Amino acid sequence: MSTSTTPVIVEVAINGGTFPDRNPHVPLTAEAIQRDVFALLDAGASMIHSHTYDINLQGQAAADAYLEAWRPILEQRPDTVWYPTLSVDQSEGASGESIEGRFAHYPIIAGEVPMQIGIVDPGPVNLGYPDEDGIPMGFTYINTYADIRYAFEVCEKNGFAPSLAIYEPGFLQTVLAYRRAGRLPRGAMVKFYFGGEWGMFAKGHGVTFGLPPKESALRAYLDMIEGTDLPWSVSVWGGDLLQTPVARMALELGGHLHVGIEDHYDPDRTPTNMEIFEETKALCEEVGRPIATAAQTREILGLPDPQG
Question: Could you tell me the superkingdom of the organism this chain comes from (predicted)?
């Protein structure tokens, strides 16, 4: 099958750390999450990533918040490919709670509803925004080697396919080390997070992270995974993926797309998740790649049918 006709996974990250002051259309309540997710699934979205209204919740409290939103969705659409985020303290200067606490809600959710994907953030990164003088301020999102090992073990133990967020090239080096050691769990997908000019928090432009959303940057990542056959996607945090060259380039080279209100920022517009998805769908059609169904997404990732 040629690249031009290979199904493309379009993952929609519907909320994340975005709040109404940044985009008034962000779905945060259970009802709003359900409304957006059902609409996106009906429109053909391949995968959904979701947060709760409070990322600081842990354990049973976090699980309850996710289940309130997601149980009705999965009762009607049990084939949905989706995953929650980790519990992380994002207060000023914080680096996160214990690794056990960050994952405590995962097995609880998976014991109640279909859930096949987990998260591994394979490295530390500085995340911030400019102060009044344009100087970077913020915090360090810490993921030690021990934390990373624990995250992979959670995926192995529970049969979760790891969603591998690549904020920096060093993150990918760690993933490749696990692959060489034969310890990369089934279904792993690397997701290249490019730093847009407004950064992770969109509190001002000029302070960001990682590589910029340029063709040369994507080429560098692809050189690193050459010969691995790892599925990969691209996203831009603090910008608009579709307004950069990496979106079309990814489609033309066989990659996948990660879009949605979580990472999108444009000071001149605040689109809905559906508007972002429809714009993404139009680009896929222009390039000539159909959007993967849930079944095709599981086939690409090598995941079993949750109903069979």
Answer: Bacteria
